[in-house]
Amino acid sequence: MNNELEMEWSKLKKAGLMKYLLIPIVVVFVYLLNPFVTVPAGHRGVVLNFGAVSDKIMGEGLHLRIPIMQSVIKMDVQLQKSNTKADAATKDLQNTKFAIVINYHVSPDKVNWVYQKIGAQYEDRIIDPNVEEAVKAISAKYTAEQLITKRQAVSEEIMASLKAKLIVYNIVVDNFSIVDFEFSAQFAEAIEQKQAAEQMALKAERDLTRITTEAKQKVEGARAEAMSLRLKRMEVTTQLLELKKIEAEMKAIEKWDGKLPTYTGGGAMPFLNLNNKNK
Questions:
Q1: What does the pLDDT read at residue 226?
Q2: CA-to-CA distance for 47 and 31, rounded, in angstroms?
Q3: Residue 26 pLDDT more than 80?
Q4: How many Cβ atoms from other residues are within 10 Å of residue 170's Cβ?
Q5: Comparing C-alpha atoms, which of 67, 64, 65, 62 is closest to residue 29?
Q6: Which whole number is the average pLDDT over 10-34?
Q7: What is the mean pLDDT of the chain?
Q8: What domains can you pick out in the chain, each with its CATH number?
Q9: SS3 content of the chain, % helix, strand, coil (to 5)
């Protein structure tokens, strides 16, 4: 009986020991094989089966994979910024250097295609060459001066061309802008001289307008002054005539000798003679 009890107790001890041994084995297994994968925010997971790209794309969060068989490549699908420089020639054969900024993102549901066909270095392989090609094609339609005066239109046209080129590679253009133009030293100097001449011409035009306005104001002022003097002269003349008339009547009164005036003529309307013979 005692032997049987000892045998049972030995079995139990071995079973408990196996449990304790199994736990670290499982932990080591999970750690080494790592069947879990986490896809961070703004990324997608491209699933590879023994190195071959599959159709499965993992979204953000925690996922299970088959150890040894499957591996996961994390692809960034967030908005990305690319600074690019491009050399081009204008319609009037002026060499121009462009500083370009482009915002883009990889199409989230096509990351497996992008990884398989292009790889993770799509900026160097696809974006920069296509930016330069689009810039050269569009800038050749404009003169150097038009690149400056129609900058927004040029930028929009390049962006439309670039969108059409990159969407073929499942890369979406979100925004495009021309940061700067750089022309040859001779052309830049010619532009500065032209702008200076335009400023001088504008100043001369403003001065001419001002002088013309001042001259018109002086003419109108002179006309008003002449009219005032003319009215004053007319007023003075009327007053003088009235004064002369009064003075003449006063002189006549002073010369009257006190005799009543005599009538001459036999008509119905007598004529009053005010002249005094005794002067």
A1: 64
A2: 20
A3: no
A4: 19
A5: 67
A6: 59
A7: 78
A8: 2-76 (no CATH), 80-183 (3.30.479.30)
A9: 55, 25, 20
Q: What is the pLDDT of residue 183?
A: 81
Instruction: Tell me the CB-side half-sphere exposure of residue 220, using CA atoms within 13 A.
Output: 6
For 42, what's the count of Cα atoms within 13 Å in the CB-facing half-sphere?
5
Residue % of the chain over a pLDDT of 70 = 63
Half-sphere exposure of 170 (CA within 13 A, CB side): 15
- Rounded-to-integer distance, Cα 30 and Cα 26, Å: 6
- Give pLDDT, residue 211: 75
d(CA 181, CA 85): 10
pLDDT of residue 208: 74
Q: How far is CA 256 from CA 243, 262, 264, in A?
A: 20, 13, 18
**Pairwise CA distance, residues 113 & 68, whole Å:** 23
Q: Could you tell me the two tokens for 181?
A: 């133009």
